[in-house]
Amino acid sequence: xxxxxxxxxxxxxxxxxxxxxxxxxxxxxxxxxxxxxxxxxxxxxxxxxxxxxxxxxxxxxxxxxxxxxxxxxxxxxxxxxxxxxxxxxxxxxxxxxxxxxxxxxxxxxxxxxxxxxxxxxxxxxxxxxxxxxxxxxxxxxxxxxxxxxxxxxxxxxxxxxxxxxxxxxxxxxxxxxxxxxxxxxxxxxxxxxxxxxxxxxxxxxxxxxxxxxxxxxxxxxxxxxxxxxxxxxxxxxxxxxxxxxxxxxxxxxxxxxxxxxxxxxxxxxxxxxxxxxxxxxxxxxxxxxxxxxxxxxxxxxxxxxxxxxxxxxxxxxxxxxxxxxxxxxxxxxxxxxxxxxxxxxxxxxxxxxxxxxxxxxxxxxxxxxxxxxxxxxxxxxxxxxxxxxxxxxxxxxxxxxxxxxxxxxxxxxxxxx
Length: 417
Ligand code: CAO
What we know:
Blueprint: E1 10-14, H1 19-29, E2 33-38, H2 59-62, E3 69-72, H3 78-90, E4 93-96, H4 102-105, H5 110-116, E5 121-126, H6 141-147, H7 171-191, E6 196-200, H8 201-208, H9 210-222, E7 253-257, E8 268-272, H10 278-285, H11 299-302, H12 306-317, H13 322-329, E9 336-338, H14 342-347, H15 349-354, E10 357-362, E11 366-371, H16 394-400, H17 405-413
Parallel strand pairs: 1-2, 1-4, 2-3, 4-5, 5-6
Antiparallel strand pairs: 7-8, 8-9, 10-11
Helix pairs in contact: 1-7, 6-8
Bound molecules: oxidized coenzyme A.
Oxidized coenzyme A (CAO) is lined by residues 17-20, 37-39, 73-76, 97-99, 102, 105-106, 125-127, 138-141, 170.
């Protein structure tokens, strides 16, 4: 038995940039046969965006398209359309994240695909959901973060809305889509029919911002939010404010300076004051008198001077590196972490050992670092391979579809592949 649960699932990967490719890459890691369909000559735009080596596929592409095959196909030419039709008849899923209406304009509406293969699952990413008053808009990452509530609630209260470096609009939407596709595959086992699965970037961002929607309702009712730095000394308007680095749940937390912060931009830890861990925190800081002090002993009593408490912790951290600090605090069961740079993460032996970061070969660029599966299984260890060159598998895929050598040559001559 294969230890790749998605083996046998054939996916037409009509995706580009990040949101769609992140989804299909994950399905490929788990064993699906993912055939990336790309425009002849140019391919996915990320192949040439932000290149670090001239004329070689950019890391932007290689890190989102591992474990896939690449088929070049001009789906606007009749010969290309014919190939795509054959592929649709033989595949399980088609994933796309074109601009609104592009697939329909190409002649492959949901109705048409459904006629060609009633079992086909068609999965789409768009900026806004169908029927939304903005559903005609093209959308990139930061646009989605602004539309989904992340930007208005991220950053500093006296600064502008701020986007996160994490791809909440792109890869996050791809992950939602992957869940939708797997659900539709299970649904098909029950009904024998495919279905359309759609995820919008706005909705996916909002789904991750649900605690801020929680806060809006609390604010509407109470007029204040007790865990925000604005409480109790500042003011609240009628919208959820930006809370800097405050903890988002019931546990106050903050980013605190450690030894070396003056020169190292990441010499910080995140420190959380978990209610029931107050006594160990006081012990760790050498302030046992705070344990019983009524000004400190309850979360409510601490909140008015929480920033002074963080300042005291910072003073304690002044002669400790972020790693030394965490090594002390972990013994007291305090939720905390060093603020890790990309350089530190790239070299982290634990992430290499777990496969979360993998070094893979590539035919033209040599080896490169990429992300591996963040999902760990007891019976599956995804093997991460390098991304395909543009059209690397065109002839192979055409042969599998039944095209003979001469027909393949004719398709090349017509510049349809
Ligand atoms: N053969 C022939 N034509 C092809 C093709 C192929 N293999 N692949 C794509 N095309 C065509 C499309 O049919 C489309 O043609 P028309 O517009 O003439 O109908 C054209 O290429 C452009 O597609 P597009 O609208 O997707 O591309 P864009 O660069 O203008 O927009 C993006 C990019 C990302 C803004 C848009 O695709 C989008 O909004 N997608 C949905 C949201 C999304 O996923 N955004 C996140 C991307 S990750 O940051």
